[in-house]
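Lab meeting minutes (informal)
Scribe: AK
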Amino acid sequence: MEKMKVRDLMIPTERFPRISDSATFYEALVALESAQKKYLSGESEQRILLVEDGEGKVIGKLSPIDLLRGLETNYNRMDAQKILTRFGLDYIWKSMQEDYNLWGNPFEDLCRKAVGLRIKDFIKAPSEGQCVGVDDTLVRCFHLFVMNRHDALVVLDGDEIVGLLRFSDVYRRASQVMKECAVETALP
């Protein structure tokens, strides 16, 4: 596994459904539901939507969590550096909820306000902890998956997003190696 590179298991961007960053919140909701249905029926291999800008360049991925984040626009006001310096999960949550009035408005009101949003209004560029290079080793990916609990990592070739590395694919390969090692160890 130490010699295996990201490029060996990544899925190129061409194999994912896409959505424009100018699509509305509602269009994103419908597109995610459609991708999920197609995935579950076996009609599609992917349920992750890639977001592209007006020039067709992939700028990120869209997940159901991103939609929830889009509902509560106060997340855009948060200073992540300030938050990271605080300690204690309960303290962080209570402080964030008070400081930014997170989820303080009725859910239906948030939904009504979100109708006018565009994906580009709430989608975030992939963070450093969510990106790997095509020639990175899987060992680096193990660390990012374990520490950040992402379902997929964005694969970069320079500054360009060229694919995704899904945790499910990495786990499938890792479990195969774990089983082989267990069998080898059990042999007399």
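Next up, CB showed the second protein from the same session:
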Amino acid sequence: MAAPVFVSGAVEGPSDEPVLRRIIEERGGVVHRVQVQGGKPNLRRALPGYNAAAKRDPWLVLVDLDDDRPCAGELVADWLPTPSKNMRFRVVVRQIEAWLLADAERFAQYFAVKRSAIPVNPDLILDAKEKLLAIVATSRRLALRQDMMPRPGSGRRVGPAYTSRLIEFASDASRGWRLESAVEHSMSLAKCVARLDQLITAHR
């Protein structure tokens, strides 16, 4: 039996963490620790330290592209022009919601919406969070809509349990998000998985 390959990770927010964990675990790695930075500015400030640690140990860091740069390559060149050999700094195009929508079948089942409402290529969505909310607004389950949609007059973009509902979906391997299905519809996710595979294989 091959020795376990421990991979550390870092993400912007809580809803990114279960996605990162699922990617590492389902590609044969073992999650060592995950740093949730509470926002993109904090993640950027911490990145040099993670990159230094990646001189010795495997790391996977995820960041949303949002509308910060025209493409992922420009963001990587700006944030981390010289990654360490064990660093996998991957850009989610454009938000983690796009990777969750990439498993359209399970998303439709889990959130009780029509599969036809989910875009075939979620990487092309400019605002995946907005699109996800528009889809959930049509859910047949009142509790989901109440949890995820913003309350009138709240001034918030999302509902009170938006993040926790996404975490549930991303964490549920039996009924929720499937990595193997999502990679077929998200090129940015497929590239992330391929680069992580190379890293894990190199440490076997």
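CB comment: The first helix runs from residue 17 to 26.
No objections, moving on.
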